[in-house]
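[User] I have long wanted to understand how a fold can be written as tokens. Those tokens are not coordinates but codes from a learned vocabulary of shapes. Could you go through the record with me and say what the backbone is doing? Thank you; the sequence and its tokens follow:
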Amino acid sequence: MYIDQSRTLKIAFVYNHETSHQVAHSAPTLKELLKRHPKFDVDVVTSTAEQEELVRYCLGESLSARVNFIALRGGERVKLLLKLFNMVMPARRYWMLRQNLEVFRQYDAIIVPEWTSLMLRQRFGLEDLKFIFTHHGAGDRAVSFNRNIREFDFVLLPGQKFEDVHLDQELVRDGDYAVTGYPKFDFVKGGEVAPEPLFDNDNPTVLYNPHFDPHLSSWYEMGEAVMNFFKANTAYNLIFAPHVMLFQRAVHTSVEKRKIRFVKALAEDFKDCPNIHIDLGSQRSVDMTYTRAADIYLGDVSSQIYEFIEERRPCIFLDSHDANWEGNPFYRHWTFGPVIDDISKLPQALETADLTLARYRMAQETGFHSTFDLTQTPSSVRAASAIAGFLNRMAYTEANAEAAAAE
């Protein structure tokens, strides 16, 4: 028979990335775990000051006081070298793991939104450490269904689309995953004062949200032309908020596609346009401020499209790489609006955006509901309960194994 848990499990929510864009995907879950399942000993491990600041923002002052924040160390000593290697691999993330093994050795389980943390077990010998994967984003790209996912002990999934693919590709096992919705939708605190308007007019606002991927992104081939269009057409407002990684590196490399692209600095004259708001990586670029503020979405393969269609609105997609996208599940979101392969087609696409939305509304409805399993219970509450259930099961299994060994 099961015996009571013999000790308090020590766990950590870990954010080991160059930027803060993954925080909002799991910090709401951390918040609910602290409120509803206080028996666990919880730390927050970060690799930048911005990540810690964003976690504290989500938790609020009282809950933040209950958490031990730990900053990973070691990256500054080899900053220039890591920057060089980061062009082709997540070298900084690997290095931070390697340099902080004693930090990670103290935990029974860690909750992470990415899979490089698995190196702690695969390469660095922390075989007893359990890994819980939250995902970050809910897009269609193949990278969302990476084979490393099968190495996690427990996985949170946003909805039916992810569950179907994960089971089909044997990335998860029965009993070791849970469908919990999308905790990022809970990140913005309820009751907060609405943000200040970005523009002092009522013109249609377009969000241009290009990805950084050197093969798939529209930025390298079309980005400057897009910016010039809005510079010359002040009847539209433009929020330029690319994936936060786009301007983090001077070079982006796709090993799979054997492609290298250089990122040109953003021209200064765009920054002086009153109808163009530029954000290359602030908190507002990762907390859905812009996906909720825009009237029209303009992009390529970013998973933020699914956050944008939380409210059904016009979308326009830029095909800069001659994609064979029709019927391709990795481009499912391109069925949410017209796809254009030349900037000369952008004016008409914008002018008819509201009229053509009816043609794509059903695809948006279907895509959203298959991607996100949302219920009256907030996703972050469901995710916290799922994690607590896994940890309780883990604790009881461990306690009974120790009891059996002692007999």
Observations:
- The longest helix spans residues 379-406.
